[in-house]
Amino acid sequence: MFIDISSLKKSYSSGLVKTEVLKGIGMKLEKGEIGVILGPSGSGKSTLMNIIGGIDSGDSGKVVVDGVEINNLSSDLLTEYRREDIGFIFQFYNLVPNLTVGENIEVVSNISKSPLNIDEVLAAVGLQDKKRRFPRELSGGEQQRVSIARAIVKNPKLLLCDEPTGALDYQTSRSILRLLQQVNKKYGTTILMITHNAAIAAMANRVFKVRSGEIVEATVNEVTVPAERIEW
Ligand code: ADP
Ligand code: MG
């Protein structure tokens, strides 16, 4: 198993009040698969993804990614894991406004060890002619394509997408999801994606339904639907 999580718990405390956000999560995803985490707002989806991506940590339980138990890594190895193995995509793109598209990809990413380069990933996301543009000159969908290019240029083992289409209209969402499917196929990148839109689950190999910090249902889709055929 590429991702193998068991009994993962996490609480946040504020003052005397302690809230258990993850109540013993278990989930598995194979290498090269697309997994979707589905659940309402506040159910713990981002917390779970942030722990998998090494930008937050669990209180107890096991999180194994590609054979490495990430909760046991030294801080140096954890930094290396985040920089080299993980690509992150967020709802609001998080591009640097005063840098061009090309510079956004170059500055934020760890390209030196990657077999890919900026021009190749810009072509892969359909923005080969936008390298010298600034984020404000692009539509929301194009900005999300830049953030995908930025995430994939280091050829990550795992692409984590936290509501990647949350700020986009349905048509644009379809094209972004299609692009993620193409990345998965072309580079063999394992993808884990958060959404609260049940329709998106049809494109995943595995679907994890989360309710208040627990996985209440895990399904395997024998057949996955191409993103352009998702019915909203
Ligand atoms: P989702 O992504 O499903 O909307 P989150 O994982 O963001 O859910 O949040 C789950 C719960 O944990 C929410 O109640 C949220 O307020 C709380 N929470 C998330 N991050 C923090 C934090 N850093 N400190 C305190 N509480 C947090
Ligand atoms: Mg969230």
Automatic annotation (TrEMBL):
The entry's keywords: ATP-binding, Nucleotide-binding, Transport
Superkingdom of origin organism: Bacteria
Entries under Pfam families matching the protein: ABC_tran (PF00005)
Domain ABC transporter: 3-232
InterPro entries: AAA+_ATPase, ABC_transporter-like_ATP-bd, ABC_transporter-like_CS, MacB-like_ATP-bd, P-loop_NTPase
Entry GO terms, CC: membrane protein complex
Record-level Gene Ontology MF annotations: ATP binding; ATP hydrolysis activity; transmembrane transporter activity
Keyword Nuclease: no
Family statement drawn from the similarity comment of this UniProt entry: Belongs to the ABC transporter superfamily.
Name this polypeptide is given: ABC transporter ATP-binding protein
